[in-house]
Amino acid sequence: MKFINLKSNKLINVIVLLVALLTVGAQAQIPGRHWEQYQNVADAGFSEQKLALVSEQFNNSQGSALMIVHKGNVVISHGDITRRYMVHSIRKAFMNALYGIYVNKSKLHLDATLQSMGIDDVNPLTSEEKKATIEDLISARSGVYLPSAYSPRGMEKNLPERGSHASGAFWYYNNWDFNVLLTIFEQQSGKEFSKVFAKEIAAPIGMEDFRQSDIFLRYEKERSMHPAYLFNMSTRDMARFGVLYLNNGKWKSKQVVPANWILKSTSIVSSDLGRFADREGFGYLWWVSKGIKGEPMYYTSGSGGHRIIVLPHSDLVVVHRANTYEGKNVNESEIKQLVERILDAKSGAGKKDAATIRLTPSYNLPKTIKLDRSTLEKYAGSYKHPFLGYFTVRNEKHKMFLETNVGVFKLFAIDTDTFFPEDLVTPMQFVPAPDEETKYTIKPIFSKDRQLQKAIMYY
Q1: Which residues pair with 394 in a beta bridge?
Q2: Cβ-contact 2, 9 below 8 angstroms
Q3: pLDDT over threshold 80, residue 83
Q4: DSSP of 8-75, one letter per residue?
Q5: Is 3.40.710.10 the CATH number for 30-358?
Q6: SS percent in the chain: helix, strand, coil, step 5
């Protein structure tokens, strides 16, 4: 498929603006400070029996949390929707929102080139590579094929040869494109990305669990000077983000993200997706599908089974999570079947004023205890994991923290030698090392089905 330059195509821009003006008036319902759940799913236009099949499939899978939102209220939810899991590639949709805001403010320009912005890397860019624009980056069509931070082995192994494609000519899903967007954003806006996201996205839409510290920059400077920006986020906060996009970027009376930007971003720019062909289309950092059961949808996807799925015609947002911290995984076909069952369960329009009750999530955290400072300090140090690199345990103001290459997590004591990391939850047990070679190493303990049960920390 030939790449369509949406910025320069006047006809498409006119259509985009007209559709945006028509759709922005028809607002979806917006969650309040706390989520509400339908008392009776039939009143919301769903079959209780068919939703039971959705619940059964989810409960029999390796999924960790699920939320189905219709007209701003929860239809059903499963798992701990307050727990902050790593979102993986869903981070790109969060970047999309800030680009929409700052393109609208004329702080970012889609036709700006890497050359004009002074962008380079540890592997210097060629003059041809520097012709790539911001629009090429957000469309995954930069033509720059370089190593990048936080790249899966398959992504880098299959990189096209440098110089094999001009900017804008070929789609390739490469973290180099996505990571450099952070550098450009901070350089051109003069602002720190995490602070802007907290102020301009999380706060206006009322995210309940998000903290600025849940955004973590991962540097791999020997590969690239551009860090990956990683997010940890709860299911219920991701659902708010999905509702924001469903509602054309408007939250109550505030236009948080421009409506025409969302329409552009969730329209197909590329359909020549290679090994991702089953996903059908890619817009601006969002995947775009022609439909499930005849219903068009757009979605953002994270490795292992993380999804925010928006189905505008049915006024639905579906958020699916998997505990990838513990190696759990739900594949593409399973999630597609789940969405098909959700759509099949939608039996009608529902009552206009269907009764709701406040959704009160359950917290299943173990009881914690306080330890004296000397006990905490003896556990501090840098520990080597057999395949995840180094983890650092530090004591700061009588609080313990675990620093990893995917974020920093607070540690809570449940015994004198056992802790659980916030959101990770998997227990960490500190044990005296039997010898010098074992000291400051980590031994993961797995169950028979290869599920992580705990980590032994030899100090």
Answers
A1: 401
A2: no
A3: yes
A4: T-HHHHHHHHHHHHHHHTSPPP---SS-EEES-GGGGTB-HHHHHHHHHHHHTSSEEEEEEEETTEEE
A5: yes
A6: 30, 30, 40
Tokens found for residue 46: 């769903």
pLDDT in tens, 335-378: 999 999 999 999 888 888 899 999 988 766 788 999 999 999 99
Distance from C-alpha of 315 to C-alpha of 69, rounded to nearest angstrom:
8
Q: Residue for token digits 């490795």? A: 303
∠ at Cα 206 (108, 364), nearest 5°? 125
pLDDT in tens, 377-393: 999 999 999 988 899 99
> Which sequence spans correspond to the domains of the chain?
30-358, 373-458
- State how far Cα 268 lies from the chain centre: 20
CA–CA dist 236, 221 (Å, integer): 34
Distance in angstroms (rounded) separating the CA atoms of residues 325 and 64: 11
Which tokens sit at 316?
A: 């639905």
147: phi then psi, degrees, rounded to nearest 5: -60, 150
* pLDDT at residue 405 in the model: 84
Token digits for 351?
Answer: 């009552």
Q: Which residue has the higher pLDDT, 24 or 51?
A: 51
* Beta pairing, strands 295-302 & 306-311: antiparallel
Amino acid at residue number 425: V
127: left (phi over 0), alpha (psi -120 to 50) or beta: alpha
User: At a CB cut-off of 8 Å and minimum separation 6, what does 111 contact?
Assistant: 7, 8, 133, 134, 135
